[in-house]
Amino acid sequence: MTKSFRIKSFGCQMNVYDGERMAELLGDKGMTEAKDGEDADLVVLNTCHIREKAAEKAYSDVGRLKKTDGTRPMIALAGCVAQAEGSEAQRRSDAIDIVVGPQAYHRLPELIEGASKGLRPVDTDMPAISKFDAMPARSKVGPSAFLTVAEGCDKFCTYCVVPYTRGAEISRPWADIVAEAESLVDRGAREITLLGQNVSAWSGENEKGQTGGLELLVRRLAKIDGLERIRYTTSHPADMDEGLIAAHGEVDKLMPYLHLPVQAGSDRILKAMNRHHTAESYLKLIERFRAARPDMAISGDFIVGFPGETDAEFEETLAIVDAVRYASAYSFKYSPRPGTPAAQMEDQIEPAVMDERLQRLQSRISAHSLDFNRSKVGETMSILIERQGKRPGQMIGKSPWLQSVFVETDAPIGTMIDVKIEQALPNSLGGRLKEKVAA
């Protein structure tokens, strides 16, 4: 059995969460996490498959683990690339000892044992809920923690591999989620972000026999003493209900921040993407959230250059950016994924056209993001201290709207402090402790 390990996670918050759970699982089996600069007996590459050439990048990462003397650590290919490639990964690279999909990582210790005996195990089964039952209690907990409440997606957007690599939508049981949340808070978490590929589709039954969606769960978690903030990501516009909208106006611990991907502003493109919403229905949904919580910050996702997208349709995307005025957003060039319907569509867009559109889109998003940050100058807000800054005496915390806030303070990590904002930068805010602000 190997003695030390390193886990490298790429991609979404779900992968970060999965990486943390794998680390806890291996630690529970007596292994130790290698320190920075130290070689590890085992390296787990926890991969993301959402972008083009993700598999090629994973194989390049595998190649870089080989040392100049020809030796290498045991290598486990995990995550969505592992799920998509399966045993083919080991045919492409004899350096890969283990292949384990995102729904089977709870079996990693036995796969390691098999590899240590000369086997090359592959496990890409998808029992989405059973893995949580097999995991040890959370151990490594910071002031802000992730908590997976749902796995998989049933939407089958034509560009997306998630239904194939993460499986169908499955909600974790109510009692399991509440117990894990309480454990996180007991270990120091003050903010919890609920995770799911489509978190707004979560449903379950509480201890009273009531069935409900994410709103019911949020209201229950808000009763946990010591938990100060609740967030959730990622949502789908088709699964946002009135109860969740109302919760944003009624539950103080639910932060005024909503990540709600739209992907495009053209109804024709949205239909081709199989997104289950229109530009108008999306904008009306945003209006309802802002009616419930006027200071709501909106974040989103965009794809430019989807097959067949015209210049006029791209302009419709810019129009929706201007209408929403996003506080932040992620934007990408369309990337064909093998096995998805969009990869077979005609009228694939030239890379140069996608490059130009992406630059224009990101420029527009950045302008609105900076405007949003500037709107906070002069406000006093509570921030949650998460880490040290680069300068002596500087700490970095998160605002209710998920902005990084720099402040000089001796407040320890995990502390909530009041800060008056004095500076707005493109991706952060600068402030001063409230009690140090001159009257």
Structural commentary:
With 439 residues, the chain is α/β, with parallel strands linked by helices. It folds into four domains: 4-123, Methylthiotransferase, N-terminal domain (Rossmann fold, 3-Layer(aba) Sandwich); 141-251, Transcription Regulator spoIIAA; 256-375, Transcription Regulator spoIIAA (2-Layer Sandwich); 380-436, Nucleic acid-binding proteins (OB fold (Dihydrolipoamide Acetyltransferase, E2P)), CATH 2.40.50. It has helices at residues 13-28, 54-64, 79-85, 88-92, 108-116, 130-133, 162-165, 174-186, 214-221, 242-250, 267-273, 279-292, 311-324, 351-374; strands spanning 4-9, 32-33, 42-47, 74-78, 98-100, 122-123, 144-148, 150-151, 170-171, 191-195, 203-205, 211-213, 229-233, 257-259, 297-304, 328-333, 380-388, 394-398, 404-408, 416-424, 428-433. It has a six-stranded parallel sheet, sandwiched between helices. Strands 17-18-19-21-20 form a five-stranded mixed barrel. Strand 5, helix 5 (108-116) and strand 6 form a beta-alpha-beta unit.
